[in-house]
Amino acid sequence: MRTPGKERGLSIWGVLLLVFLVVFFGTLVVKLSGPYYDQFTLNAMLTRMVEDSARGTFSESDFRDRVRRNVNINNIQVDVNRALTFDRRSNPPKLILDYEERIHLFGNVDVVLTFYEEYEF
Length: 121
Fold this sequence. Notes:
Shape: elongated
Number of helices: 3
Number of domains: 1
Oligomer: single chain
Number of strands: 3
Largest sheet: 3 strands, antiparallel
Strand order of the largest sheet: 1-2-3
Distance between the termini: 83 Å
Helix content: 40-55%
């Protein structure tokens, strides 16, 4: 009769490490997906609005009002008054979207996300 050798597999420490990694990266995905989705939506919205504005004349205040309305409709949590700047000195004129978002993960650990995009008229 043959005696079984030492069985191999995950130890309790291996299982705990695996559970910790799954929970940690799951938390990252859940908490960081919102700001990245907002940035993706804002980027698509501004690209579409800049293309529409390039066809005709526009004023900066009208453009900001349209952006503010679209941000409210899409429930995007970005302060467009501080995030958007118009650079009319460059050739061609540019719209610059530049903002940071701080996300609290756990304890005293935060993540700072920086978003920067330029749109030419």
